[in-house]
Design brief:
four-stranded antiparallel β-sheet; eight-stranded mixed β-sheet; binds manganese (II) ion; Aminopeptidase; single chain; 2 domains; 467 residues; Alpha-Beta Plaits; alpha+beta; binds ligand BES
């Protein structure tokens, strides 16, 4: 495309300024799950709407019952020979995860720093640098450079930024339904996933779904002295621990009745494509201090994380956890449990099956309370669409190695909603790396991800616009 070279050169020339803009966004602690940061979430939305207006988007902060959305529109080029360039909807999220344990951070989570590593590579360290502020800015920087160099964009672009992705997206579905026309495009571009490795870009064609559940087991009417009552009183921590331990058998399979209903073996084409990826289980686990895959026996790590469902305890609470020691039998104990789902498990059925599993194991005098925390089905995207092929070619032009198609163990609920509510397919292209430590202390985004991510979007937009 005419002009692409100058757009790429513009991105190279302005990298420092782009890092400055990203740093301004990273300084805003937009933690969506904690109500104490609601004003900061709004500030992040306002910052982004302001930046998009500055480069010529018709942008607005849109209120919801929760944190606001940002929606911005930019027209596409005039039709060429009667053919219109596609309309793309870019999705990202400006909210971030909490920063705990804060003592593990080497620098302030909301004081972004650029660090140079011994091998000469650079990284931007801050909460949200990779998930998802750095990623969403790669797209905005590509648009900025297009505007500066060519005066327009190669496609009609709508940008849709959410502020509740990390906290179960409670406002998302009503917002999509209420703004269906406005948010419908030919394809959604979602930048919230990883590359295959430093040199190899990736398009993710599968995502696991998720069901989040909190369970509270209650027994006595108050906390008890564990000597006076111990031996006679039911202990809800024991009850909870037994139930949670019961969820897996010795082969790592989930024992909840009906859990595997609808779960299928991998189609041969997918298995072959995954087998051809250069992947070391030892390195994947070794990087985080582990050595033996702990999940379902007889499955590869890629299967365990991409195509098999899981049940994981994410948090557990009860009794005395302060300094020192207290001899107490707690009146209640609770756990947060998440299930990663694969095609075609039904989130509602999994939730109900878990409730039944817990209730069947409750001894006398115990009750269970449940609190739902989001649910979304797994996603399988087409492997062979023309848009995907164009994007794949564009990515392969930018990086040392050609783009590959991968699965993804994490969940991005909006992708399923785009399909079911707006009839829109998504292209999942992201530049994160496995060691970015998203959701963990010292989260970072590689400078190469940020820089070449921008260049990649410029190429993808140019390729999609070529028709
Ligand atoms: N960006 C992540 C998804 C992701 C995880 C991409 C790992 C690449 C590698 C996303 O923001 C996320 O964390 N999603 C949550 C969704 C949940 C709260 C419904 C997840 O997967 O836990
Ligand atoms: Mn994310």
């Amino acid at each position: 495309m005419a002009g692409l070279d100058s757009v790429l050169a513009c991105l190279d020339l302005n990298l420092d300024r782009a890092v400055g803009r990203l740093s301004d966004l990273l300084r805003i602690p937009s933690i969506s799950t904690d109500p104490a940061y609601a004003e900061d979430c709004r500030r992040a939305a306002e910052y982004l709407a302001g930046d998009l207006s500055a480069i010529g988007f018709d942008a607005a902060v849109r209120d919801t019952p929760g944190h606001p959305m940002v929606v911005a529109h930019h027209e596409g080029p005039a039709p060429k020979d009667g053919v219109k360039a596609p309309h793309v909807l870019f999705y990202g999220h400006y909210d971030v995860q909490p920063v705990d344990p804060v003592s593990e951070w080497h620098t302030g989570p909301f004081e972004p720093v650029v660090q140079e590593m011994p091998d000469g590579t650079k990284r931007i360290v801050a909460r949200g640098s990779a998930d998802d502020k750095g990623q969403l800015m790669t797209f905005i920087e590509a648009c900025r450079a297009f505007k500066a160099e060519t005066g327009g964009l190669p496609c009609r672009v709508t940008i849709f930024l959410e502020g509740e992705e990390e906290s179960g997206s409670p406002s998302l579905n009503p917002f999509l339904d209420a703004n269906r026309e406005e948010l419908s495009a030919d394809v959604a571009l979602v930048c919230d996933t990883n590359m295959w490795n430093r040199d190899t870009p990736a398009i993710s064609t599968g995502l696991r779904g998720m069901v989040g559940e909190e369970v509270v087991i209650k027994a006595a009417s108050r906390d008890l002295h564990s000597g006076y009552y111990g031996g006679a009183a039911q202990n809800p921590i024991h009850v909870l621990a037994n139930i949670l331990a019961d969820m897996h058998d010795a082969d790592g399979r989930v024992t909840i009745p009906g859990f595997y209903d609808g779960v299928e073996e991998l189609p041969d084409v997918v298995r072959k494509s995954w087998d051809s990826l250069d992947f070391s289980e030892a390195d994947f686990l070794g990087e985080v201090g582990l050595s033996v895959p702990s999940g379902e026996k007889g499955r590869s790590v890629l299967e365990q994380t991409w195509s098999r469902p899981t049940a994981e305890v994410n948090g557990i609470a009860g009794g005395y956890n302060g300094k020192g020691f207290k001899t107490v039998i707690a009146a209640e104990a609770s756990a947060k449990v998440s299930f990663r789902l694969v095609f075609s498990q039904d989130p509602a059925k999994i939730r109900a099956a878990f409730h039944a599993f817990v209730e069947a194991r409750l001894p006398a005098d115990c009750t269970a309370e449940f609190h739902a925390h989001g649910g979304s089905p797994a996603i399988q995207l087409p492997f062979d669409s023309p848009l995907l092929e164009k994007a794949r070619g564009a990515l392969s032009d930018e990086w040392p190695k050609p783009a590959v198609m991968i699965g993804m163990g994490g969940s991005i609920p909006v992708v399923g909603e785009f399909k079911s509510r707006l009839g829109m397919e998504s292209l999942l292209i992201g530049f994160g790396l496995g060691d970015d430590a998203i959701h963990s202390p010292n989260e970072k985004y590689e400078m190469s991800s940020f820089h070449k991510g921008q260049r990649s979007w410029a190429r993808v937009l140019a390729a999609l616009g070529e028709g």
